[in-house]
Amino acid sequence: MPKASSIARAKADKRSGKAPSTQAGHFVRDEIEAVRHGKHGVRSAKQAIAIGLSEARRAGVDVPPPKTGSKAVAAKKSAGKPAAKSIGDKAPRRPSLESTAKRRSAAIKALK
């Protein structure tokens, strides 16, 4: 979860017309600091940078998706999508009745 201060600094950079890489730099810096403090178990600086860029994308920074060949297809596809909604904005979903027989029978019993 990115810090609120990082999001605020990135928005300020966007308002002043700075490049997306500059906006994302705040998230990357926070991630590298977290690694230095031992909050993450990443094995290399590249992983910390990748996590920071991913957080920046989720916060709405227009960072391009990873280059071809550097990531799995699924990771590239999800990184290319527009910024995801925050967790609080999502509409609650009904559990599907077809997912498991146990849940289905419990739902039917509750409805009866």
Automatic annotation (TrEMBL):
Provide ranges: composition bias, Low complexity.
Answer: 68-86
Record field: compositional bias (Basic and acidic residues) = 87-96
Please indicate which superkingdom the organism of origin belongs to: Bacteria
Show the segment(s) annotated as Disordered. 1-26, 59-112
Q: Where is the composition biased (Basic residues)?
A: 102-112
The entry's protein name is Transcription elongation factor
Organism equals Cupriavidus pinatubonensis
